[in-house]
Write a structure and sequence with these properties.
Elements: H1 3-7, H2 12-19, E1 25-29, H3 35-48, E2 57-61, H4 64-76, E3 83-86, H5 87-102, E4 109-110, H6 115-124, H7 131-146, H8 154-160, H9 169-185, E5 188-189, H10 191-204, H11 206-215, E6 218-221, H12 229-239, E7 245-249, H13 264-267, H14 269-272, E8 277-281, E9 283-284, H15 289-300, H16 305-309, E10 315-316, E11 325-329, H17 332-348, E12 356-360, H18 366-375, E13 380-382, H19 392-406, H20 411-414, H21 418-427, H22 441-462, H23 468-481, E14 490-494, E15 503-508, H24 524-538, E16 541-550, H25 579-588, H26 606-611, H27 623-640, H28 644-647, H29 650-659, H30 664-668, H31 675-690
Parallel strand pairs: 1-7, 1-8, 2-3, 2-6, 4-5, 6-7, 9-10, 11-16, 12-14, 12-15, 13-14, 15-16
Helix pairs in contact: 2-3, 5-10, 6-9, 10-11, 10-12, 15-24, 17-18, 19-23, 21-22, 27-29
Length: about 700
Amino acid sequence: MEAEGVLEGLDPEQRAVAEAVQGPVCVLAGAGTGKTRAITHRIAYATLTGVVAPQRVLAVTFTTRAAGELRGRLRRLGAPGVQARTFHAAALRQLSYFWPRVIGGDTPKIIESKIPVVADAARACRLSFGRTELRDIAAEIEWAKVTQTRPEDYAAAVARSSRKAPNDVVDVARVYSMYEQLRRERNLLDFEGMLELTVAVLTDNRDVANQVREQYRYFVVDEFQDVNPLQKLLLDAWLGDRDDLCVVGDPNQTIYSFTGASPDHLLGFTREHPGATVVKLVRDYRSTPQVVQLANGVIGQSRSETARRHKLELVAQRQDGPEPLFSEYDDEVAEADDMARRARKLIDEGVPASEIAVLYRINAQSETYESALAAAGVPYVLRGAERFFDRPAVREAVVRLRGAARAGADAETDGLGLIQTVRHVLGGAGFTEEAPEGTGAAREKWESLAALAQLAEDMAADNPQAGLPDFVAELEERAALQHAPTLEGVTLASLHSAKGLEWDAVFLVGLAEGTLPIIYAETPEQIEEERRLLYVGITRAREHLSLSWALSRSPGGRRNRRPSRFLDGLTPKTATPTPARVERTKRSGRKGPQPCRVCGRPLTAAIERKLGRCEDCPAELNEGLLLALKDWRTETSSAQKIPAYVVFTDATIQAIAERTPESMEDLAQIPGVGKIKLDKYGEAVLALCRA
C-alpha cells in the first residue's frame, strides 16, 4: 500500500493522529471512536514514509488478543515487521535473551498463578485460608508489587490508599513476605517480578539498555489509562531520554484502579512531555445515537475534577436505533427470566447469539442468568473463566485431533470432510450433537468442544481444501497466541471483563444500589470508578441496550432495593409492569413466585418453574408422548440445522408430556413455550399430544 493510501478513509481527527508521526503524541479516544484504526494507520504511515523502519517499532497492549489484532491490521496496511506485544511478553522476550549474558545460571520458571505458592506461604505462617481467600490475597500481593510496595510497608500503603484489605493487614503482610521468600528459594518468577527484573537489567547494564534502545526506537502504548507504576517504570527504561512515544487512552474507561492502574500517566502526559501533540477522538462509530446519549448522560453527571477537565463527549455517527429499555422487577429470578425471554426473541429475529451479552457487576451474579438461559433453551458462554486453551476438555481434544492428524485421519484417507472428521474425533472426547441440560461442568465442556467444531466449519468455509493437519496447525497457532475461537452463545461476563469488547445487544442487569455502585465503594474516587464501570457497560452495545434491576433478591422477599443512583434523571418518568411480571400474573392469577401445581410450595429453581412443580413431587408422565416429542425434536433440529435444545429443552419437553396440553392456550402456559415457538411448533406439538 502507498503511504497516501493509508490516510484514505480516516476522519479528520484520525488523520491528525496518523500524520503526527514524530515526537510525543497523546490520543484521548472515546469508546467506539476508532482508536485502533488511528494508531495502526499512524504506524503504517510512519513506516511507509521512511520515518522509522518497521522492526524498530514496539506497540504495547494489555492483552494477547489486542496484540494479535494489531499485528493483523498492520500486515494488511503494509507494515508486517512491527512488533506488537503485551508488557509481559515484551519483557519476557528481552529477559530471556539477555539472561545468559547478564545474570547466568538456570532461568527461573514463570508461574502463571500465585495461588499455589500463596497457599504454601500461608501454611508456613500457620494461617488457614479457603480458595477464595487465597485468590484475594494473591491479588493483593499483585497490587503491592505493581505499586512497588514492600511487605514491611504494606499496612501503611493500604491505609494511605483507603484500600480494604481482604484479611487482617498484618496477616497479609506476613504471607506476602513468606511468598517472596519461597519464590526466591524455588527459583520462580511471577509476572511482576519479570517486569522488575527487566527494569533492573536495563538500569544496571548500559550495554544492554543501549542494545534494546537501538532495537526499539518508536513506541505506541494502547489503553494508557490502565498503566500501573511498574509498567511505567519499564516504559521509561525502554525510552531512555527519547520522546518518540504515542499513548492512547480514555480517562472515562479507567476501571482498574484496584489493581494499581492509574490514569495519572495519561492525564499528566503533557506535563511530562511539554509540547506534545494532543488529539481527541469523539466520533462514535460503534453505537446508535440513543446508546451514545445515555452514555454521555451517565458520565456527564460525574462529580470528579478529572471528568470535568478532560471531558470527552461522544458524537454518534450511526443512524437512529431503538431506545434503551429500562425494566424493574420484583426479584432477581423474574429479572433473569425476562432477560432470557428477550434474548430468545432477539435470536429468533436474527441477532446471532454470539452478538448478545449479559453484563453484571460481580461474577457471583451469573448463576441466576445461566439457569434462566438454560431453561429458555438459549446457548451461552461464560467469559472471564479459565482461559480457553487451558481448559482440560480443550487440551484433551487438541491431543486427540493431533493424534488423528498424524494417523492420516483426514478427508483424503477416510472420505470424510474436515467438519465430519473433526466432529468424529471430538465425539471420542465426549462431544454430542445436543447440549447437556442445565449448567455446570458438563455444559462448559460441551460448549468448549462445540466451539472447536464451529471453528472447523469456519475453516472449511474459508478453504474447502483444508484437511485435519491444517486445522491442527490453526489450533496450535491460536493456542500460542491465546486466541480463543468465538463461542456461539450469549456471552455472560462481568463489566470488568467486558472492556474492549462490543456486541449488537447488551443486557446490563442487577443495576441496584449496593451492587452498582458496589457496597464497599465508599470514597468519592471509588464511587466515580463505579460510574465509569456503568459507562463502559453501556458503550459495549451497538444497537440494543437493556438496563434492569430487581427490588428484592429472592421471590417473595422484601422489595426494599432501589435502582442505581447513576440512573437518576435518566430513566423514563413512568414505569409499567415488565412483560415477565404480566405473564406471571396471568399464569398464576396472583403476585409472587409461581406455586407448585402439586403441593403449592413457591418455585424458585428454573427447572421447577418449567415443570410447574417441585422436582420431587409426583406427576403423571405420558411416556409414549415423551418419546414421540423427543423423536420429533431430533428431526426438527436436524432439518433446521440447530441444536435440539434450541427447539425445546428437555425440561420443556417433559413438562409438555406431563400436562398433555389440548389447545394453543394450554401450550402457551408452559414456561419455555413463548409466542415465537408457539407459532413455529405449536401445531406439530398439539398433533403429537392428540395422537
